[in-house]
Design a protein that fits this description.
- The complex is a heterodimer of chains A (360) and B (402).
- Chain A has 360 residues and is α+β, with helices and mostly antiparallel strands.
- Chain A is built from 11 helices and 12 strands.
- In chain A, strand 1 and strand 2 form a beta hairpin.
- In chain A, the strands form 3 sheets. In chain A, strands 1-2-3-6-5 form a 5-stranded antiparallel sheet. A 4-stranded mixed sheet of chain A has the order 7-8-11-12, with helices on one face.
- Helix content of chain A is 28%, strand content 19%.
- Chain A folds into 3 domains: 97 residues, Alpha-Beta Plaits (2-Layer Sandwich), CATH 3.30.70.3340; 159 residues, 2-Layer Sandwich (Sulfite Reductase Hemoprotein, domain 1), CATH 3.30.413; 49 residues, Alpha-Beta Plaits (2-Layer Sandwich).
- Chain B is α+β, with helices and mostly antiparallel strands.
- Chain B is 35% helix and 15% strand.
- Chain B has a 5-stranded mixed sheet.
- In chain B, helix 2 runs antiparallel to helix 3 and helix 4 packs antiparallel against helix 5.
- Chain B is globular, with a radius of gyration of 26 Å.
- Chain B starts with 7 loop residues before the first helix and ends with a helix.
- The chains are: A alpha+beta (360), B alpha+beta (402).
- At the A-B interface, strand 1, strand 4, helix 3, strand 5 and helix 5 of A face helix 1, helix 2, helix 3, strand 1 and strand 5 of B.
- Strand 4 of chain A pairs antiparallel with strand 6 of chain B, so a sheet runs across the interface.
């Protein structure tokens, strides 16, 4: 056994990416000159040397089986000498130097049910989390809402242009795996009730000081309940972030009636034109209505269409709203402005409208 | 015979133009009792509108503290095949480039030892193997190692670094994101596999200010490419954009945040005052054949972004306004600084406090002093507008008296 331990290889790190670069990329590495988008979902990058590489971008459901990965591998062998890559928004890109292969790849992928698109001003795949497929703190499902929203908006992935890029993201709770909080449209799972405390298990499963310290509003304090060391929650200070539940499994707050979805708009990460910014609350709560969450898909479509009808070219959703003002956004979308829209956490005052500049 | 679940709710999500994750789970379920039980469980969640996963316990591979996220179903009596259903994070190659052979190797391992379901990729950038049993972890690890792959990060460690496509296929890459991502990953293998920090630590690398990996929103250290010299202009191509119908004045010039461009509509020529340029990328994005970043390139290093948990979301802010990461000396200085920051944060940071929250708590000025970096105006949007200043001269004098 000690011998086996010594031979056990660790910390080798990932494969060196250079092993996976197609020859045309190796040859023109760092020497690309410009690119064009001859059709939605297809890019051609041209190097200083005159060499060209075509990329065919294909939408995927992110949650994919090895059968589908093997299919991708087969298509890459057929048309791309075996080379392909994935994008930061989990599209797959087939890379080829042969222009005629573009249509062939497109045909194969569409026949498999995976659309080609997602480039330029429009909607690309939704970055999202695990939801009910794999997460303990999910306030909603992820894959199901994403599927329903993309079914509804797929034309903006495959063919129709919008004023600018529209990045949609979904996180199934406030932990926000992924950059949901800086998206043009963010769909965010929310809990709306304080944790239920399992006093028999708090002391067995959790460190009480860590649980108390985990609360951003200091609503949790140590307490003895029926002679057992536990905690109590000052309910009116709880804003349902679930951080205590992450630290302590004995404090679940998932609830079918109270959990649901909030919608946020106008964030961006790119520095183009305006600085990166957070998404802002558009709709505080929509219920969980599986399998297709019609309230959510309708809200997202409303935002996309109102923006498309009113924005100038290149104006991201947040930039459009910055120009016309939030009152116009609420008027045009018909979303109700409520108490929840006004911040009451740290530095809340910075979001009050501290000017007399108002549109009519 | 595996149990056959009726899934009317999920079947609904096989319809429609967008590719269906339900179809993917069903494909995997043909060969995997685990994926079959997942299908049944998910249908139950759809009916009950609640998840059925418990917290992870501590599971992993020998000698590593990260890379595996323990997952157990809370109704194992009904779904015994997913009583354990652990996630494995596998460190992706820089830029998510693969050969078909490498993908098939991964599939073969996962077919034999797990659910056959993956995420390509997870939000951190890793390849995600979704669902396996505790007993399979060591064999998977050894087969991955043999295939040249290693686990990614999870928990309070250096998370798997990720980067954009960079010089591999983008004319805007201002530094070699693929190489820096690989180098950082290799340098911090120990910190990546053995959690020893107050909380997670993320590096993300984007080759230009378009920031395709959203580094400014979610990385503790965001490295964003930029340039110092003038934007390169191809005057003929500007005329071609005009001929092709682009409204150069309204769509390009008026959208410049620095108002540093002038357009001569007669000559179809633009003039750029590069001293005022903010390197935002808009004009270059709009006219990629006519305009390009300069050739004196490097990166801005920013610090501290994160999602809301615990103390609220933060965007990264400027730490180093310009660094040439292709220069060996500057790279080593950069790594020294990173390690100094990690030391200070490990020493003074509270449990589950990201470095951005730590900076908020102790004050950026004090933080800079602790890591030995001089404050410069590039670090703030504006100087403070409140007069509650902690002048330190009084306390410094007292210390000297002792």
């Amino acid at each position: 056994m000690p011998g086996a331990m010594q031979e056990r290889l660790t910390d080798i790190g990932p494969p060196n990416f250079e092993e996976f670069l197609p020859p045309v990329i190796k040859k023109n590495y760092g020497q690309w000159k410009y690119h064009e988008i001859p059709q939605k979902g297809v890019m051609v990058h041209v190097a200083e040397s005159g060499d060209k590489i075509y990329s065919v971008r294909v939408g995927s459901p992110r949650l994919i089986s090895i059968d589908t990965i093997r299919f991708y591998a087969e298509v890459a062998d057929k048309y791309c000498d075996g080379y392909l890559r994935f994008t930061s928004r989990h599209n797959v890109e087939f890379l080829t130097t042969v222009e005629e292969n573009v249509e062939k790849i497109k045909k194969e992928m569409e026949a498999y049910g995976n659309p080609v698109g997602g480039t330029g001003p429009g909607i690309t795949s939704i970055v999202h989390t695990q939801g009910w497929v794999h997460c303990h703190s999910a306030a909603t499902d992820a894959s199901g809402i994403v599927k329903a929203v993309m079914d509804d908006l797929s034309e903006y992935f495959t063919s129709k242009d919008l004023p600018a890029k529209c990045r949609i993201a979904l996180a199934c709770c406030l932990n926000m795996c992924g950059a949901v909080h800086c998206s043009d449209i963010a769909i965010l799972g929310v809990h709306r009730k304080p944790p239920t405390i399992d006093h028999n298990n708090v002391n067995k499963l959790c460190e009480i000081p860590s649980v108390s310290a985990s609360c951003p509003t200091a609503a949790i304090r140590p307490s003895t309940v029926d002679g057992k060391p536990s905690v109590e929650v000052i309910q009116e200070n709880c804003m349902f972030c679930a951080n205590c539940y992450t630290v302590c499994p004995a404090m679940p707050l998932n609830d079918p009636e109270m959990d649901g979805v909030s919608i946020w708009v106008g964030g961006k990460v790119s520095n183009a034109r305006s600085a990166p910014k957070f998404s802002k609350l558009a709709i505080p709560y929509l219920p969980n209505t599986p399998p297709r969450w019609p309230e959510v898909t309708e809200a997202v479509r409303t935002i996309v269409e109102v923006w498309a009808d009113n924005a100038r070219p290149y104006e991201r959703i947040g930039e459009w709203i910055d120009r016309v003002g939030w009152p116009r956004f609420f008027k045009l979308t018909g979303f109700e402005f409520q108490k929840e829209h006004i911040d009451d956490f740290k530095h809340a005052g910075l979001s009050f409208n501290r000017t007399a500049q108002l549109t009519r | 015979m595996p149990k056959e679940y009726k899934t009317p709710m999920l079947d609904e999500l096989e319809k429609g133009p967008w590719p269906s994750f339900v179809k993917e789970i069903k494909l995997a379920a043909k060969n995997s009792p685990m994926s079959n039980d997942l299908l049944g469980l998910l249908e139950r969640s759809y009916n009950e509108r609640i998840g059925h996963w418990k917290h992870g316990g501590i599971v992993g591979v020998m000698g590593y503290g990260g890379g595996v996220i323990g997952r157990y179903v809370d109704v194992p009596e009904d779904f015994p095949n997913i009583s354990h259903f652990h996630t494995i994070r596998i460190n992706q190659p820089s830029g998510w480039f693969y050969t078909s052979d490498a993908l098939r190797t991964l599939c073969n391992i996962w077919e034999k030892r797990g659910s056959g379901l993956t995420n390509m990729h997870g939000s951190t950038g890793d390849i995600v193997f979704l669902g396996t049993k505790t007993d399979e972890l060591e064999p998977i690890f050894s087969e991955l190692t043999e295939a040249g792959f290693d686990l990614g990060g999870s928990g309070s460690d250096v998370r798997t670094p990720s980067c954009c496509v960079g010089p591999g296929r983008c004319e805007w890459a201002c530094y070699d994101t693929l190489k820096l991502c690989y180098d950082i990953t290799m340098r911090y293998q120990d910190e990546l596999h053995r959690p020893a920090f107050p909380y997670k630590w993320k590096f993300k690398m984007s080759g230009c200010p378009n920031d395709c990996v959203a580094s400014i929103a979610r990385a503790d250290i965001s490295i964003i490419g930029t340039w110092k010299d003038d934007i390169r202009v191809d005057a003929e191509e500007i005329k071609n954009y005009d001929k092709a119908g682009m409204d150069i004045f309204n769509d390009v010039v008026l959208n410049c945040p620095a108002k540093c461009m002038k357009y001569d509509a007669k000559a179809k020529a633009i003039e750029i005052n590069n001293d005022d340029c903010r390197h935002c990328m808009h004009c270059i994005n709009a006219m990629p054949k006519a305009l390009r970043p300069g050739t004196d390139t490097g990166a801005v290093v920013l610090i501290g972004s994160k999602a809301p948990i615990v103390e609220g979301a933060l965007l990264s802010s400027v730490l180093i306004p310009f660094i040439n990461l292709d220069d060996e000396d500057e790279r080593e200085d950069f790594f020294d600084l990173i390690e100094e920051i990690q030391d200070v944060w490990c020493e003074e940071g509270k449990a589950r406090e990201r470095v951005g929250e730590f900076i908020q708590r102790v004050g950026m000025g004090n933080f800079l002093e602790a890591i030995g970096v001089e404050p410069i105006p590039e670090m703030v949007a504006y100087p403070r507008d409140n007069p509650y200043v902690f002048y330190e001269d009084y306390y410094d004098d007292e210390e000297e008296d002792e």
